[in-house]
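Standup notes
- DV: blocked on the single-chain target, sequence here:
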Amino acid sequence: MLTDLRLDRDTLEVVAVAAAVVAGLSLLLLLVVFGRLRALGKALRRQAVVPRSAPGGDTDPGALRHVSVVRYDAFAEMGGRLSFSAALFDDDGNGLVLSSINGRSETRTYAKALAGLRSEHALSPEEQQAIDAARGS
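- DV (later): unblocked, structure below
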């Protein structure tokens, strides 16, 4: 009986040490994630979306101020216009197009860079429609 008690105590010590190691690694991972979120927040604050008619009339030409979203049904059997393409670019046509294609069992998201309103990737009709609408905004 004394041997069984010792074995159980040894097992508990191993489990406790393993749990402490997992908790420490989780804390370290959490700190890394918070650091990256902070950096992302700073980057997003630097790249502001500014309306065309900002007070004072002076806006940064590099700001993403041409914005449009086009919603649509990507597949005939799907309803609710849950798919979308969004265009965001500056006065020089530099920015990106984001598309999210919603299907019955999955959703896929794509990002395509824009340089001078052109992309090195083929644009869908909906993506081009979003660009055209944002150009007119």
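- Follow-up: The radius of gyration is 25 Å.
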